Amino acid sequence: MRRREFIKAVAGLSVVAWAPALRAQQSAMPVIGFLSSRSPGESAGVVAAFRQGLRETGFIEGQNLSIAFRWAEGHYDKLAPLASELVNLPVALLFAAGGPPSAFAAKGATSTIPVVFSAASDPVEIGLVPSLNQPGGNVTGMALFSASLGAKRLELMKELMPNAGVIGYLLNPAHQKSEIEAKSVVAAAGALGIDVRILNAKSESELETVFGGLQGMRIGALVVSGEPFFDSRRDRIVGLAAKYAVPTIYAWREYVLAGGLMSYGTDLPESYRQAAIYAGRILKGEKPANLPIVQPTKFHLAVNVKIAKSLGLPLPASLLARADEVIE
Length: 328
What we know:
12 strands; 7-stranded mixed β-sheet; Rossmann fold; alpha/beta; 13 helices
């Protein structure tokens, strides 16, 4: 055998010998299934926060971790089949992004693969976990108490619009927490002396109908619930509020950055970062049953002065003084 042919043969044997080891190394890389009820474009900020949380626990996508993304884009009926698809890949962990709809879909798809949820409102009350301190089973994550924050949003809108006859409260009836939130809001409105009207929309056409009918219902201001379908249509909702010139308060500051008037709620990207840290800890061997549900400690009030001026609304000095973020 010639020398050149001998070298090629040895090289070929080396490749054959190393190939199984390389495949084993690749297959050993854990895969996180990222299941979201929202849309990829408007979720860029929270996805970046999720990756940051993973980095803090030593996991970097493409180096020692792979992420498989699945997006329902506000269509909750797609979540269950997408969750099953991820389970069958298989994945080492399911990350349920976008609140209770994706969390319930992930929980329903597996009782053995760990599930970490982010931004799930009132998880005990809606039956997602039995306890905040001891979630048990394979599910844990980050709680957002949006239903209880509805009363605060009503109060802030009343402060801004003291002469508003009726304040509308927009909910998605397809969301697991909508009935709980509606009861909480009606009770809070009674205590605050506010005339509130619950409005429902679960599709784009219904959003158009709701906004188009506000004037006829004599609704002078609007509160929009923190909800994944609404988040996936954020720009459209902000655009409708501008079109019909209705003062509106939202759950997340991202709406205000997109041109909304005001928001009050928890830090959504921080919820994703914290949930990703839990995901990293679980990949390192901790059990979800032993990781208590993390509750928010910081609340953010954002006000868009430019939008207030366009609506002809004077902003109370007391409101501006309490704002964490004022957009000129």
